[in-house]
UniProtKB/TrEMBL annotation, chains A, B:
UniProt organism field: Methylovulum psychrotolerans
Signal sequence interval, chain numbering: none
Tree of life domain: Bacteria
Protein name: AraC family transcriptional regulator
Domain HTH araC/xylS-type: 229-330
Any Pfam family matching the protein: AraC_binding_2
Length: 332, 332
DNA sequence: TGAGGCGGAACAATACCTTGACTGTGGCGG
DNA sequence: CCGCCACAGTCAAGGTATTGTTCCGCCTCA
């Protein structure tokens, strides 16, 4: 990409917000703003063509790192973004973007579908695929960047779920949107650990809301998907049992170990690897959770089916890059 | 319990709501309402004494089964509920009740703590232990019943987390309260499956919010908290002994005086300061107690380990703002 | 003014956590 | 079903945080 980088330096200084990073066109002279905006959006979001209106550009983004996600609060003048089929691919983010529209008009096209959002509504799109976003007036929105694998593992046929209209006034959509807005609103007030924990809930709720509007026609050999689902459910219920092993899972689900192994193969994983992942994940969450602040690390580890602290320690570090106690400290 | 059951039948019919069960005094003739209300509350919540205001009773409850929890939306006229220490124990629910206050005034007493809620605020109490709830005006609230084991396994020392004030305007409290209100609001709109899934999130968020306000001695590591508890127990047993001093406590508990001093430091107090506080408090209670009306002040003081009346007098005034005899007179 | 309670500093004894090396087996893939 | 080797599980050593001690000087209050 040829975007010039003369703003890179000034950018890195322009962000003294407590938790989030703030970018604003206001910090620059009007003639520079458009170039600057192109660079920022290209770097932080996706490589898109930006068509600003004739009037002056105003655009303000506050970006929060949110565990595995990124939450952005965006206010902007009218704008059009377009990602073309052959965009040069220094992909900034291999992610889906979930949008919670707050005010103004918002129109999105992707995969031949088109969606209009009212304030409160949500939608999802693939940041790396061609898309077209039109906002003919000043508007504001929340944008949640969700790394592709995270959604893939949660939603079968996610690629068919883009550019759908998720109503934000009723039912689960309203609950999810309300929750995420609430998180964004309180972001600065929250402890780092609390804030992180909320991201998991946000993702869960988004996925739930998505499920209500997804088209029903994607076909993934149903029985296999169901079987895998059952297996995972069984694992979830028995995570804390140290003797959880292929034989146990097999007995508990009525499927042969070999078959289970094949099921996991589909997502480039294996049974026990998955089990350890889930255990680690549970421990990690508990380490962050202030409610368990008084508990020893070994208590937590044993509670989730580890039976040896050294084993846990090693695995944890390998997975998350630092030792359990460092992790707990670092996220206060 | 002797509550009559003549309403049982009519109750079971009075609930054609889609998901929730609705109870309302409106469905009954005014003279019957109070009896009916007593029965419903006793059966659905806890066995409490109900003191209605002089005016007519209005009370409306919609109860949703929420996976392992129960969510109630309650609107009511002024009311006072009191669970006495020796309530006959056909315990309707062995659960904690989380309250999200919506409108009006709400005051709760339990375990010697007292909490006032503003709209939006939350608190938690143990439905099976004595408690006292005062709402002097019409009010509305959400109530989430959480089976005891569910909270026990999530929060160490949950029994000390009752009657705490969880602010509902800021930070995690606002996120949690907002989420649950949103769930209640959309309850009728949601699929059964969706609705169930949300309960897990609700519980998680509640627990998180609780963690931010739990009393500080839970940030104390377990062993330290235990040690402090032992020290206090020893003090309580020997309050009346005038020679109770650091050396004695040390001997009685097996901890060094210095260490005990450190323990008290954590609650911004010191050993002997605590001892005098307890003695004064005991004396104060006895001064108020009509049983001891005939006893001389110096008898009372000496009985609680003071060995010098002038010392007692001075401390008392310093603490409670008036002399012991004034205090006794003033509170007849 | 002196007795006694309080808390700072320095230190010993643990408890708790992390890491490394090693090994035998059970989970994985053909 | 079977063979192979990655990896779960042990043991031991080292490091760091926590717990509890002693000694001592200061300050308060009777």
């Amino acid at each position: 990409m040829n975007t010039d980088t003369r703003f890179l330096h000034s950018l890195k200084e322009a962000m003294p917000s407590t938790r989030g990073v703030k970018y604003s066109t206001e910090d620059f002279a009007p003639p520079d703003r458009l170039d600057w905006l192109r660079e920022v959006i290209g770097r932080e979001y996706a490589n898109v063509e930006i068509t600003p209106p004739d009037a002056g550009v105003f655009n303000e983004m506050v970006i929060y790192a949110w565990e595995q996600l990124r939450l952005s609060v965006i206010r902007s003048d009218a704008i059009t973004l377009q990602r073309l089929p052959r965009e040069p691919d220094l992909i900034s983010q291999d992610a889906y973007f979930a949008v919670i529209h707050l005010s103004g008009c918002y129109r999105l096209l992707q995969n031949g579908r088109e969606v209009f959002l009212q304030p409160g509504d949500m939608t999802l799109y693939d940041a790396t695929l061609p898309h077209h976003i039109v906002c003919p007036q000043p508007f504001s929105k929340l944008l949640i960047s969700i790394p592709r694998p995270l959604l893939r593992e949660r939603v079968a046929g996610i690629e068919h779920c883009t550019a759908l209209h998720i109503p934000g006034r009723l039912g689960i959509g309203s609950v999810a949107a309300g929750f995420i807005r609430s998180c964004a609103h309180q972001a600065e007030q929250l402890q780092a650990g609390e804030f992180s924990l909320l991201s998991e809930h946000a993702l869960d709720l988004l996925v739930l809301a998505l499920a209500t509007v997804r088209p029903s026609h994607f076909k993934l050999s149903k029985s296999r998907a169901m079987a895998l689902h059952r297996v995972k459910a069984f694992i979830e219920n028995n995570l804390s049992c140290p003797s959880l092993n292929p034989a146990a899972v097999s007995a508990g689900t009525g499927l042969s170990p070999r078959y289970i192994s094949l099921l996991f193969k589909e997502e480039d994983n294996s049974l026990m690897r998955y089990v350890w992942q889930r255990r680690l994940e549970s421990c990690r969450k508990e380490l962050l959770n202030p409610i368990h602040a008084g508990h020893r690390i070994c208590d937590i580890a044993f509670r989730w089916g580890f039976n040896d602290l050294s084993h846990f320690s090693r695995l944890f570090k390998q997975h998350f890059g630092c030792s359990p106690s460092d992790y707990r400290e670092g996220h206060k």
